[in-house]
Amino acid sequence: MDNDCLFCRIVAGEIPATVVHETDTTLAFRDIDPKAPVHVLVIPKDHHPDVVALARDDPAGSAALLASAAAVAEAEGLLTDGFRLLFNTGGYAGQEVFHVHAHVVGGAPLGPMLAPR
Ligand code: AMP
What is the 71 CA–ligand 1 centroid distance (Å)? Predict the structure, then answer.
């Protein structure tokens, strides 16, 4: 655990979150500032700063994170109409929290993948 990491502190129970799914190695909770009717963050309980580090350092954890994201999408009723799964990574993507997290967003048409340039 990284004591300075917001999401590690959520895993530790030090900061409250609305948890919707949990496994031995992953946790999923509602985004505090949702950008769609459904907006859930799925994280590994272990600290990895971004998806590149997770993929490199923990392939089994990477697979577990994807499986949890799929389970969340199904539980939230997103499989019929579709949803978006994304990892903001680094500065150009606007990553704000440096504990890898998959955004599961859906529940309404999401519009273009990126803002028009
Ligand atoms: P990113 O820009 O990909 O790093 O996304 C970070 C996300 O974390 C944003 O969508 C925030 O709204 C969300 N967030 C920040 N603090 C919390 C919190 N305490 N509980 C739930 N979500 C949070």
Answer: 20
**What is the residue with the minimal CA distance to atom 13 of ligand 1?**
31
CA–CA distance, 2 with 19 (Å, rounded to integer): 20
pLDDT tens-digit readout, 55-114? 999 999 999 999 999 999 999 999 999 999 999 999 999 999 999 999 999 999 999 999
Residue of 21, 99, 101, 103 marked active site: 101
pTM of the predicted model as reported, rounded to 2 decimal places? 0.97
Strand, helix or coil for residue 56: helix
Q: Which residue has the tokens 């917001």?
A: 6
